[in-house]
Structures are given as C-alpha cells and as structure tokens.
C-alpha cells in the first residue's frame, strides 16, 4: 500500500514538472550568453543625446581679450543649443596636448583650438582626426596640419592699419617695433602687415627702424624691458612705436613714462583692451586696432556647429598653413583712436562709456 502510494506520488510530481516545462517552452527558449547580453542591453533606457558637444582648447586667459573670447564663444554656442567644454593650457604646449586628449576622451563632436605654439599644435589635429573629430582653428592658425577650418581676423590687415595710421602721423623718423610672441603665428602676420607698409618709407630713407624685437609670451614686462633697451640705444630719440598688441603697448608706455616721454611719442597697439581705451582717452596711447570679438565668436560658433553636424561649410578664402590651403573665414579689424572710440568699442558695448572715461 505504501509502495503504491509512493509510486503514484512520483508519477504526479513528474507530470507536474513536465507540464511546467511545457508552459515555459511556449514563452521562452534556452538562450546563449550572447543572447542574454543582447536582451539585457535592449532593456536599458535609451541614452542617445543629439546635443552637439564642442571642445574648446585655449592657450591662455592672461590677456583681457581671451577672457572675453571664452565667455562670448560659450554664449554663442549655447544660443545654438550646443554644449561646450573649455580647457585652458596656461601657455604650456604639452599641457594643451594633454587637455585635448581629455576632451577627445570626453566625447566632443568637434574640437576648437587656440594653439599656444602654432608650429607644434599639428599633433593636436592628428589626435583629433584619428578619433574622427574635425578641428576648427580659432583666431590663430595651426601650421603644417590638415585643419578643417580657420576662423579669425585678417591679421596682416591689423599690422597694415597700425602702420598706415602711424606713417600718416609720422612720415619720417625713427621707429621702434615691439612684436608679439614669435611662437604665435598671428604675431608674425601682424609684423608682416606692418613692414609691408613701412618698407617703401624705409627704402626712401624716410623711416629707420632702430629697434625690432619679439616679446616672449606677449608679456608686458618683457615689452617694457625691450622698450627701455630701445630708448637707451637711441638716447631716447624715438619718433614712433608700433606694438603688436595693447598689453605690449602698455609695457612700452610704462618705459616711456619712466623717461618722461609718456604722451609725447605716438604708440599703436591692438585688441582694444580697456586699459588701452583709457590710455587713448588720456592721450598716452595713440590708437588700437579693434577686433569685434563677439562677431568672431558668433562666426566660429556657427561654423563649429555646422562642421559637427556634418554640414558643408563655406569659406570666403584659403590660407596656406605650410601643408594645405586651409578653408578660412577672415573678419575685418577696425582702427580706433580718440576720434571714433565712442562710435566703435563703446557703441558696440565692448566697453562701457563709464569704464573708458571714468576709470
């Protein structure tokens, strides 16, 4: 009796087990590990994000204008619905390359670069292209590299405007040229523009460039030292000074002040820094070259989003960077002096009237 009951119980259990297996087979089948992994993956929430992310690698924020570029470029990109991650290399070429590697690993869709040293920044472009990321060179061109687009001002025109204004004021005499950093291709272009205008005067013997020196790292202290050396070498007999930017012009004017020559020798700069605008109003700096940075930031932001989206980008000219003819967009700079300071940098909101006239 007990044996029969045990046998019956076994049959029932077996039948129930087979029934359960049958029901399960109707809904599932045995899956391989790969199939299970795919199933788990398909159950995850969608993570795709169509927001374009731009990496902005900057050389420095030491000079006033670069802080403006940083914020204006961010504003313009965000207005277009894009995100931006900004890293600043503090004038360190190796650090800039390392930061670019970080931006690439963070998944940026496009890289925008203000190179510290334009000659060695080609490595940045190569790394980006290997990751399938295009590169827009902002304000300074990257040399000897296959960059995808260059957006800047016409830097030769900057130098030409400086020299044209100064030769109108001082058509004959001793000139000093205080250049920018030789590591910056823009400094080379500005100098080229200056000497394109000065050369006929030099050839005629009307103008003599008695001192011509680069300024390491665009440092105003180095410009100050250079100007002191120029004054000492010429017994303070200088008729005009062209400085590569307003920071170096500030160093020049500091040296002139020490010699009692502040406001007596015309000085040209560029960038329309606030201190330079104040000096123009005071009469200690003759002129600056204004480059509307918002226009540059807007142009670069629009082109960056287009490139990142895979759109064709139109360029109005090409610039040879030593390797290729780079598609380029060059904006026009504007000369600023006491006569038009209100109608240019103040009217544009680049600086307020209160800042310029009531420091």
UniProtKB/TrEMBL annotation:
Superkingdom in the source lineage: Bacteria
UniProt-listed CDD domains: PBP1_ABC_xylose_binding (cd19991)
Signal peptide start and end residues: none
Main location: other
Coiled-coil segments on the chain, per record: none
Keyword hit for Secreted: no
Annotated compartments: Cell envelope
Periplasmic binding protein domain sequence ranges: 54-311
Protein name as annotated: Substrate-binding domain-containing protein
UniProt entry keywords in alphabetical sequence: Signal
Pfam families cross-referenced by the UniProt entry: Peripla_BP_4 (PF13407)
UniProt organism field: Ornithinibacillus xuwenensis
């Amino acid at each position: 009796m007990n044996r029969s009951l045990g046998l019956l119980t076994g049959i029932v259990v077996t039948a129930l087990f087979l029934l359960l297996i049958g029901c399960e087979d109707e809904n599932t089948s045995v899956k391989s590990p790969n199939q299970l992994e795919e199933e788990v993956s398909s159950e995850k929430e969608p993570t795709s994000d169509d927001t374009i992310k731009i990496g902005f690698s900057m050389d420095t924020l030491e000079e006033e204008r670069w802080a403006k570029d940083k914020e204006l470029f961010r504003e313009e990109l965000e207005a277009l619905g894009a995100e931006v991650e900004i890293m600043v290399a503090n004038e360190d070429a190796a650090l800039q390359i390392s930061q670019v590697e970080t931006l690439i690993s963070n998944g940026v869709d496009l890289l925008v670069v203000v190179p510290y040293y334009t000659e060695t920044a080609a490595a940045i472009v190569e790394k980006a292209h290997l990751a399938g990321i295009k590169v827009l060179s902002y304000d300074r061109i990257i040399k000897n590299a296959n960059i995808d687009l260059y957006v800047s001002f016409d830097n030769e025109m900057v130098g030409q405007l400086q020299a044209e204004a100064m030769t109108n004021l001082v058509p004959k005499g001793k000139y000093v040229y205080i250049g920018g950093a030789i590591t910056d291709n823009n400094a080379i272009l500005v100098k080229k523009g200056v000497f394109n205008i000065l050369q006929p005067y030099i050839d005629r013997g009307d103008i003599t460039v008695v001192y011509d020196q680069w300024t390491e790292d665009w440092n105003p202290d180095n410009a100050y030292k250079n100007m002191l050396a120029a004054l000492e070498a010429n017994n303070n007999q200088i008729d005009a000074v062209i400085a590569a930017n307003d920071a170096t012009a500030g160093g020049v004017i500091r040296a002139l002040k020490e010699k009692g020559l502040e406001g007596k020798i015309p000085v040209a700069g560029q960038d329309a820094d606030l201190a330079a605008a104040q000096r123009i109003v005071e009469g200690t700096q003759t002129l600056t070259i204004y480059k509307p940075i918002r226009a540059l930031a807007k142009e670069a932001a629009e082109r960056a989003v287009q490139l990142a989206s895979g759109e064709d980008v139109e360029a109005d000219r090409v610039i040879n960077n030593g390797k290729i003819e780079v598609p380029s967009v060059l904006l026009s700079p504007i000369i600023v002096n006491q006569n038009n300071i209100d109608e240019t940098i103040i009217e544009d909101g680049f600086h307020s009237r209160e800042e310029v006239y009531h420091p």
